[in-house]
Known about the structure:
Layout: E1 6-16, H1 21-30, E2 34-45, E3 54-56, H2 58-70, E4 77-80, H3 87-99, E5 105-108, E6 113-114, E7 117-118, H4 124-130, E8 139-140, H5 144-151, H6 163-175, E9 180-188, E10 191-198, E11 204-209, H7 218-231, H8 236-257
Parallel strand pairs: 1-2, 1-4, 4-5, 5-8, 8-9
Antiparallel strand pairs: 2-3, 6-7, 9-10, 10-11
Helix pairs in contact: 1-7, 2-3, 5-6, 7-8
The structure holds adenosine-5'-diphosphate and pyridoxal-5'-phosphate (PLP).
The site of adenosine-5'-diphosphate (ADP) has 18 residues, from strand 9, strand 10, helix 7 and helix 8.
Organism: Megasphaera stantonii
EC number: 2.7.1.35
Protein name: pyridoxal kinase
Amino acid sequence: MKHQKKIALINDVTGYGRCSVAVELPIISALKIQACVLPTAILSVHTGFPTYYIDDYTDRMKPYMENWKENNLTFDGISTGFLGSVQQIELVLDFLRTFKKEGTTVIVDPVMGDYGKLYSSYTEELCRGMRHLLPYADVITPNLTEACRLLRIPYPEDGRTTLAELRDMAGALSGLGPEKLVITGIHCGEDIGNYIYERGAEPQLLKTKKIGSDRSGTGDVFAGIVSGIVVQGRPLIEAVCTAADFITKTMIYTEELDLPHNCGLAFEEFLTELK
Ligand SMILES: Nc1ncnc2c1ncn2[C@@H]1O[C@H](COP(=O)(O)OP(=O)(O)O)[C@@H](O)[C@H]1O
Ligand SMILES: Cc1ncc(COP(=O)(O)O)c(C=O)c1O
C-alpha cells in the first residue's frame, strides 16, 4: 500500500523574516512529505530584528500534544528547532517519549545561537536543557556555536577549528546520543563547510563556496532539507549535499535581490527544484 510520510515540526511560527516553520514547512511539502506543526512560540519577526513580539506557546503545547495523542497521530519523523522557554524541554521530551516509535527518525536542530553568542530570547538554562534532547535524536544539525554549547566548551577564537578538533567534537556529540550529525557553517577561507559524522564511518568535511555575507535563516533551510531527505530514507551525505547546493543557489539569487541580511533566503524561486 502507498504511504505518504509525515513529520512533526516542533518549531516557532514567525510571520516575517523567513525562518523556522515558514521555511521548513514549504520545503518539507516540496519533498512530498506532510508537515504537521506543533508551535513553540509565535513571533512577529525573528529575534534578529531590532524589536520583535513573541507569544511563548509553552502553556498551550501540552493540551495541543494531548489532543494529538487522543487522535492517535503517528509520525515518520520528528524535527525540533527553536524553543520558547526552558519548560519546553520537558514538553518536547514528553513528546519524543510518546511519539518516537520504531522507525521514527528524530532530527534535533539545537537552535541556540551563532558566532559564539546566544540568540536574544535564549537563556543559559535553556541551553543546558537542549542537551537533554540528544539521547532521543538520530540526527542533529548544530552550527559551531551550538556544538560548543552542547559540549560545554569555549567557542574557538574567530570560529576557527582544525579537522582534529571537529573530529573530537563530533565524536563527543555522538556520545551524547545521535548516531549521525552535521556541524554546519564551518569557516574554511573562501568556502563554508559542513562536517558530516556517522558513527563507525570516516567523517567528511564537505566544502562549498561561500556566497555573499551571512544571512539569517540558512540553518532552517538546511534543517528542513536534511529532515525531509533523511525521513525519505536517503543517506545523510546526500541530504547535506542537496541542502548545501540549494542554499548556494538561493544565496546567489538573494544577493541579486539585495535583500537585507535578516530577511532570510529567497528560496521560493527554487522550491519546485527540490526532490
Ligand atoms: N554565505 C553562505 N554561502 C553558501 N552557503 C552558506 C552560506 N551560509 C550558510 N550556508 C550553508 O547553510 C548551512 C547552514 O548555515 P549556518 O550558518 O551554519 O546555519 P545557522 O543559521 O544555524 O547558523 C551551512 O553549513 C552552509 O552549507
Ligand atoms: C524565532 C527564530 N527562529 C529560528 C531562528 C533560527 O534561525 P537560523 O536559521 O538563522 O538558525 C531564529 C534566529 O534568529 C529565530 O529568531
